[in-house]
Amino acid sequence: DRQAIIDRISAAPDLGQLDSIRVETLGKSGSITALLKSLGGMDADTRTAEAPKIHALREAVSGAIAERKEALEAAELDRRLATERVDLSLPAPEHPRGSIHPVSQVMDELAEIFADLGFAVAEGPEIEDDWHNFTALNIPETHPARAMHDTFYVAGEQERPMVLRTHTSPVQIRTMQSQQPPIRVIAPGRVYRSDSDATHTPMFHQIEGLVIDRNITMGHLKWTLETFLKAFFEREDIVLRLRPSYFPFTEPSAEVDVGWSMEKGRRVVGGSEGWMEVLGSGMVHPRVIAACGLDPDEWQGFAFGTGVDRLAMLKYGMDDLRAFFDGDLRWMKHYGFRF
Ligand code: PHE
Protein backbone atom coordinates (compact mmCIF):
# COMPACT_ATOMS: atom_id res chain seq x y z
CA ASP A 1 0.00 0.00 0.00
CA ARG A 2 1.49 3.27 -1.20
CA GLN A 3 0.69 5.43 1.82
CA ALA A 4 2.04 2.82 4.23
CA ILE A 5 5.35 2.71 2.34
CA ILE A 6 5.61 6.52 2.24
CA ASP A 7 4.86 6.70 5.99
CA ARG A 8 7.54 4.15 6.78
CA ILE A 9 10.03 6.15 4.69
CA SER A 10 9.31 9.45 6.45
CA ALA A 11 9.58 7.67 9.81
CA ALA A 12 12.91 5.91 9.03
CA PRO A 13 15.12 6.88 12.01
CA ASP A 14 18.50 6.55 10.26
CA LEU A 15 20.21 5.99 6.92
CA GLY A 16 20.63 2.26 7.55
CA GLN A 17 16.93 1.61 8.06
CA LEU A 18 16.03 3.87 5.13
CA ASP A 19 18.27 1.76 2.90
CA SER A 20 16.54 -1.45 4.05
CA ILE A 21 13.22 0.05 2.89
CA ARG A 22 14.81 0.92 -0.47
CA VAL A 23 16.03 -2.66 -0.91
CA GLU A 24 12.62 -4.04 0.12
CA THR A 25 10.79 -1.93 -2.46
CA LEU A 26 13.10 -0.88 -5.30
CA GLY A 27 15.84 -3.50 -4.91
CA LYS A 28 16.36 -6.44 -7.32
CA SER A 29 13.76 -8.54 -5.56
CA GLY A 30 11.85 -5.64 -4.09
CA SER A 31 8.05 -5.42 -4.06
CA ILE A 32 7.79 -2.54 -6.59
CA THR A 33 10.39 -4.15 -8.84
CA ALA A 34 8.19 -7.28 -8.81
CA LEU A 35 5.16 -5.21 -9.83
CA LEU A 36 7.15 -3.74 -12.75
CA LYS A 37 8.19 -7.21 -13.81
CA SER A 38 4.56 -8.39 -13.70
CA LEU A 39 3.70 -5.88 -16.45
CA GLY A 40 5.28 -8.24 -19.00
CA GLY A 41 2.73 -11.01 -18.30
CA MET A 42 -0.34 -8.79 -18.66
CA ASP A 43 -2.55 -8.47 -21.72
CA ALA A 44 -2.25 -5.18 -23.58
CA ASP A 45 -5.34 -3.48 -22.11
CA THR A 46 -4.54 -4.28 -18.48
CA ARG A 47 -0.93 -3.21 -19.06
CA THR A 48 -2.05 0.16 -20.49
CA ALA A 49 -4.20 0.68 -17.44
CA GLU A 50 -1.69 -0.56 -14.80
CA ALA A 51 1.67 0.68 -16.13
CA PRO A 52 1.20 4.41 -15.31
CA LYS A 53 0.08 3.56 -11.75
CA ILE A 54 3.07 1.29 -11.10
CA HIS A 55 5.51 3.83 -12.59
CA ALA A 56 3.93 6.60 -10.54
CA LEU A 57 4.29 4.44 -7.41
CA ARG A 58 7.97 3.86 -8.18
CA GLU A 59 8.54 7.60 -8.73
CA ALA A 60 6.76 8.49 -5.52
CA VAL A 61 8.68 5.93 -3.46
CA SER A 62 12.12 6.80 -4.86
CA GLY A 63 11.34 10.51 -4.47
CA ALA A 64 10.34 9.98 -0.83
CA ILE A 65 13.50 7.97 -0.18
CA ALA A 66 15.73 10.70 -1.69
CA GLU A 67 13.97 13.36 0.33
CA ARG A 68 14.29 11.41 3.58
CA LYS A 69 17.91 10.65 2.83
CA GLU A 70 18.70 14.33 2.43
CA ALA A 71 16.90 15.15 5.67
CA LEU A 72 18.74 12.43 7.59
CA GLU A 73 22.11 13.53 6.16
CA ALA A 74 21.46 17.15 7.07
CA ALA A 75 20.50 16.12 10.61
CA GLU A 76 23.67 14.04 10.90
CA LEU A 77 25.79 16.99 9.76
CA ASP A 78 24.11 19.30 12.29
CA ARG A 79 24.76 16.76 15.03
CA ARG A 80 28.45 16.53 14.13
CA LEU A 81 28.83 20.30 13.89
CA ALA A 82 27.32 20.59 17.34
CA THR A 83 29.36 17.88 19.05
CA GLU A 84 32.66 17.93 17.15
CA ARG A 85 33.28 21.63 17.43
CA VAL A 86 36.95 22.56 17.99
CA ASP A 87 37.30 24.77 21.05
CA LEU A 88 40.21 27.06 20.24
CA SER A 89 40.19 28.47 23.75
CA LEU A 90 41.26 25.14 25.29
CA PRO A 91 44.94 24.84 26.25
CA ALA A 92 46.93 22.85 23.68
CA PRO A 93 48.03 19.38 24.81
CA GLU A 94 51.55 19.35 26.26
CA HIS A 95 54.19 17.50 24.32
CA PRO A 96 57.02 16.49 26.64
CA ARG A 97 60.43 17.61 25.41
CA GLY A 98 63.90 16.87 26.72
CA SER A 99 65.80 19.60 28.50
CA ILE A 100 69.35 20.21 29.55
CA HIS A 101 70.45 18.91 32.98
CA PRO A 102 71.41 21.66 35.49
CA VAL A 103 74.98 20.36 35.64
CA SER A 104 75.33 20.47 31.86
CA GLN A 105 73.79 23.91 31.81
CA VAL A 106 76.23 25.22 34.42
CA MET A 107 79.16 23.67 32.54
CA ASP A 108 77.97 25.44 29.37
CA GLU A 109 77.64 28.73 31.27
CA LEU A 110 81.15 28.33 32.67
CA ALA A 111 82.65 27.50 29.27
CA GLU A 112 80.99 30.60 27.83
CA ILE A 113 82.21 32.89 30.63
CA PHE A 114 85.78 31.63 30.28
CA ALA A 115 85.66 31.73 26.48
CA ASP A 116 85.05 35.48 26.83
CA LEU A 117 88.24 35.67 28.94
CA GLY A 118 90.24 33.83 26.26
CA PHE A 119 90.22 30.33 27.78
CA ALA A 120 89.96 27.25 25.56
CA VAL A 121 88.43 23.97 26.77
CA ALA A 122 90.82 21.05 27.47
CA GLU A 123 89.95 17.43 28.16
CA GLY A 124 91.48 14.34 29.69
CA PRO A 125 90.47 10.73 30.38
CA GLU A 126 88.28 9.77 33.37
CA ILE A 127 90.28 6.55 33.80
CA GLU A 128 93.63 8.14 34.51
CA ASP A 129 97.04 6.76 35.32
CA ASP A 130 98.49 7.25 38.76
CA TRP A 131 101.32 9.44 37.39
CA HIS A 132 99.02 12.11 35.87
CA ASN A 133 96.53 12.04 38.76
CA PHE A 134 99.12 12.16 41.54
CA THR A 135 102.86 11.90 40.89
CA ALA A 136 103.23 14.67 38.29
CA LEU A 137 101.14 16.89 40.54
CA ASN A 138 103.80 16.59 43.24
CA ILE A 139 101.85 13.97 45.17
CA PRO A 140 104.41 11.14 45.57
CA GLU A 141 103.40 7.62 46.49
CA THR A 142 103.79 8.09 50.24
CA HIS A 143 101.93 11.41 50.30
CA PRO A 144 98.95 11.54 52.69
CA ALA A 145 96.92 13.39 50.00
CA ARG A 146 96.52 10.05 48.21
CA ALA A 147 94.61 8.70 51.19
CA MET A 148 92.66 11.96 51.52
CA HIS A 149 91.26 11.59 48.02
CA ASP A 150 89.37 8.31 48.71
CA THR A 151 90.57 7.02 45.38
CA PHE A 152 88.80 4.38 43.30
CA TYR A 153 91.52 2.09 41.95
CA VAL A 154 91.10 0.37 38.61
CA ALA A 155 92.75 -2.97 37.96
CA GLY A 156 95.78 -2.26 35.77
CA GLU A 157 99.36 -3.32 35.25
CA GLN A 158 101.91 -3.14 38.07
CA GLU A 159 104.01 -0.48 36.29
CA ARG A 160 101.06 1.72 35.36
CA PRO A 161 98.44 1.73 38.13
CA MET A 162 95.12 3.25 37.00
CA VAL A 163 92.56 5.23 38.99
CA LEU A 164 89.27 6.99 38.35
CA ARG A 165 90.58 10.55 38.36
CA THR A 166 89.96 12.15 41.75
CA HIS A 167 90.12 15.70 40.38
CA THR A 168 90.46 17.52 37.04
CA SER A 169 94.03 18.59 37.89
CA PRO A 170 95.62 15.81 35.76
CA VAL A 171 94.30 17.77 32.75
CA GLN A 172 96.79 20.50 33.77
CA ILE A 173 99.58 17.98 33.23
CA ARG A 174 98.22 16.71 29.90
CA THR A 175 97.79 20.26 28.62
CA MET A 176 101.31 21.37 29.57
CA GLN A 177 102.69 18.19 27.97
CA SER A 178 100.85 18.73 24.69
CA GLN A 179 100.80 22.53 24.26
CA GLN A 180 103.43 25.23 24.24
CA PRO A 181 102.79 28.20 26.56
CA PRO A 182 101.18 30.66 26.74
CA ILE A 183 98.34 28.42 27.93
CA ARG A 184 94.85 29.48 28.99
CA VAL A 185 92.49 26.53 29.45
CA ILE A 186 89.61 25.31 31.53
CA ALA A 187 88.90 21.60 31.96
CA PRO A 188 85.36 20.69 33.01
CA GLY A 189 84.49 17.05 33.65
CA ARG A 190 83.56 14.14 35.87
CA VAL A 191 85.67 13.12 38.83
CA TYR A 192 85.31 10.25 41.31
CA ARG A 193 85.80 9.77 45.03
CA SER A 194 84.57 7.00 47.31
CA ASP A 195 82.27 9.23 49.34
CA SER A 196 78.50 9.62 49.69
CA ASP A 197 76.24 11.86 51.80
CA ALA A 198 74.00 14.94 51.26
CA THR A 199 76.93 16.99 49.95
CA HIS A 200 79.10 14.23 48.41
CA THR A 201 78.40 11.80 45.58
CA PRO A 202 80.92 9.20 44.37
CA MET A 203 80.84 10.92 40.97
CA PHE A 204 80.76 14.69 40.73
CA HIS A 205 81.94 17.45 38.44
CA GLN A 206 84.85 19.82 38.66
CA ILE A 207 86.17 22.58 36.51
CA GLU A 208 89.88 23.25 36.41
CA GLY A 209 91.54 26.44 35.25
CA LEU A 210 95.17 26.78 34.15
CA VAL A 211 97.14 29.79 32.96
CA ILE A 212 100.82 29.44 32.07
CA ASP A 213 102.78 32.42 30.74
CA ARG A 214 105.64 34.73 31.67
CA ASN A 215 105.17 37.11 34.61
CA ILE A 216 101.88 35.70 35.89
CA THR A 217 101.04 36.71 39.47
CA MET A 218 98.41 35.99 42.10
CA GLY A 219 96.86 39.32 41.11
CA HIS A 220 95.92 37.74 37.76
CA LEU A 221 94.46 34.77 39.63
CA LYS A 222 92.33 36.94 41.90
CA TRP A 223 91.04 39.13 39.05
CA THR A 224 90.17 36.08 36.96
CA LEU A 225 88.25 34.42 39.81
CA GLU A 226 86.43 37.62 40.72
CA THR A 227 85.42 38.27 37.10
CA PHE A 228 84.26 34.69 36.64
CA LEU A 229 82.24 34.56 39.90
CA LYS A 230 80.54 37.91 39.17
CA ALA A 231 79.55 36.69 35.71
CA PHE A 232 78.40 33.29 36.98
CA PHE A 233 76.28 34.56 39.90
CA GLU A 234 75.19 37.58 37.86
CA ARG A 235 75.91 39.98 40.74
CA GLU A 236 78.36 42.83 41.17
CA ASP A 237 78.52 42.52 44.98
CA ILE A 238 80.62 39.35 44.93
CA VAL A 239 83.36 39.56 47.56
CA LEU A 240 86.28 37.14 47.61
CA ARG A 241 88.54 36.14 50.47
CA LEU A 242 91.76 34.26 49.75
CA ARG A 243 92.82 32.07 52.67
CA PRO A 244 96.35 30.61 52.80
CA SER A 245 96.08 26.86 52.27
CA TYR A 246 97.99 23.87 51.05
CA PHE A 247 97.85 21.85 47.83
CA PRO A 248 100.91 19.80 46.79
CA PHE A 249 100.70 21.15 43.22
CA THR A 250 100.48 24.88 43.99
CA GLU A 251 102.77 27.19 45.96
CA PRO A 252 101.56 29.43 47.43
CA SER A 253 98.08 27.95 47.68
CA ALA A 254 94.86 29.70 48.55
CA GLU A 255 91.38 28.54 49.33
CA VAL A 256 88.87 31.02 48.01
CA ASP A 257 85.79 31.96 50.03
CA VAL A 258 82.90 33.92 48.64
CA GLY A 259 80.75 36.20 50.79
CA TRP A 260 77.11 35.35 51.38
CA SER A 261 74.15 37.19 52.85
CA MET A 262 70.54 36.45 53.80
CA GLU A 263 67.87 37.38 51.30
CA LYS A 264 64.20 36.45 51.90
CA GLY A 265 65.24 33.93 54.55
CA ARG A 266 67.65 32.25 52.18
CA ARG A 267 71.44 32.29 52.08
CA VAL A 268 72.58 33.71 48.76
CA VAL A 269 75.98 34.43 47.25
CA GLY A 270 76.82 38.15 47.39
CA GLY A 271 77.55 40.63 50.16
CA SER A 272 79.64 39.58 53.15
CA GLU A 273 77.55 38.51 56.16
CA GLY A 274 79.50 35.28 56.15
CA TRP A 275 81.94 33.24 54.06
CA MET A 276 81.81 29.93 52.27
CA GLU A 277 84.55 28.09 50.48
CA VAL A 278 84.09 27.71 46.72
CA LEU A 279 87.52 27.12 45.18
CA GLY A 280 91.00 25.74 45.56
CA SER A 281 93.77 27.64 43.81
CA GLY A 282 97.36 28.77 43.77
CA MET A 283 100.47 29.39 41.72
CA VAL A 284 101.49 26.26 39.82
CA HIS A 285 104.33 24.58 41.71
CA PRO A 286 107.70 24.78 39.89
CA ARG A 287 108.05 21.00 40.31
CA VAL A 288 104.79 20.49 38.39
CA ILE A 289 105.97 22.76 35.58
CA ALA A 290 109.27 20.87 35.45
CA ALA A 291 107.52 17.48 35.46
CA CYS A 292 105.78 18.55 32.24
CA GLY A 293 109.10 19.38 30.57
CA LEU A 294 108.84 23.17 30.85
CA ASP A 295 111.45 25.47 32.40
CA PRO A 296 110.01 26.85 35.66
CA ASP A 297 112.45 29.80 35.50
CA GLU A 298 110.80 30.94 32.28
CA TRP A 299 107.19 29.86 32.77
CA GLN A 300 104.86 30.20 35.70
CA GLY A 301 101.16 30.56 36.20
CA PHE A 302 98.13 29.86 38.31
CA ALA A 303 95.59 27.06 38.60
CA PHE A 304 92.26 26.68 40.28
CA GLY A 305 89.64 23.98 40.71
CA THR A 306 86.04 24.01 41.87
CA GLY A 307 82.98 21.77 42.08
CA VAL A 308 80.48 22.39 39.28
CA ASP A 309 77.62 20.68 41.14
CA ARG A 310 78.26 22.86 44.18
CA LEU A 311 78.22 25.99 42.03
CA ALA A 312 74.90 24.83 40.55
CA MET A 313 73.48 24.23 44.06
CA LEU A 314 74.51 27.73 45.18
CA LYS A 315 73.14 29.40 42.05
CA TYR A 316 69.81 27.58 41.97
CA GLY A 317 69.27 27.15 45.74
CA MET A 318 69.36 23.34 45.71
CA ASP A 319 70.17 21.53 48.95
CA ASP A 320 70.85 17.85 48.24
CA LEU A 321 73.63 16.99 45.83
CA ARG A 322 72.39 13.40 45.43
CA ALA A 323 69.18 14.65 43.77
CA PHE A 324 71.30 15.78 40.81
CA PHE A 325 71.86 12.18 39.80
CA ASP A 326 68.51 10.58 40.75
CA GLY A 327 66.95 11.41 37.39
CA ASP A 328 63.69 12.51 39.06
CA LEU A 329 61.88 14.77 36.58
CA ARG A 330 59.78 16.38 39.37
CA TRP A 331 63.00 17.70 40.87
CA MET A 332 64.04 19.18 37.52
CA LYS A 333 60.64 20.81 37.16
CA HIS A 334 60.73 22.18 40.72
CA TYR A 335 63.94 24.05 39.97
CA GLY A 336 62.51 25.46 36.77
CA PHE A 337 64.27 23.19 34.29
CA ARG A 338 61.30 22.89 31.90
CA PHE A 339 60.78 20.06 29.50
N1 PHE B 1 92.43 19.65 42.62
C1 PHE B 1 92.04 20.34 43.82
C2 PHE B 1 90.88 19.58 44.48
O1 PHE B 1 90.31 18.71 43.87
C3 PHE B 1 91.59 21.76 43.53
C4 PHE B 1 92.69 22.63 43.01
C5 PHE B 1 92.90 22.75 41.65
C6 PHE B 1 93.52 23.34 43.89
C7 PHE B 1 93.90 23.57 41.15
C8 PHE B 1 94.53 24.15 43.41
C9 PHE B 1 94.70 24.27 42.05
O2 PHE B 1 90.54 19.81 45.63
TrEMBL record:
Entries under PANTHER family matching the protein: PHENYLALANINE--TRNA LIGASE, MITOCHONDRIAL (PTHR11538:SF41), PHENYLALANYL-TRNA SYNTHETASE (PTHR11538)
Entry GO MF terms: ATP binding; magnesium ion binding; phenylalanine-tRNA ligase activity; tRNA binding
GO cellular component: cytoplasm
HAMAP family: Phe_tRNA_synth_alpha1 (MF_00281)
Name of the protein: Phenylalanine--tRNA ligase alpha subunit
UniProtKB keywords: Aminoacyl-tRNA synthetase, ATP-binding, Cytoplasm, Ligase, Magnesium, Metal-binding, Nucleotide-binding, Protein biosynthesis
First-level EC class: ligase
Binding note for cofactor: Binds 2 magnesium ions per tetramer.
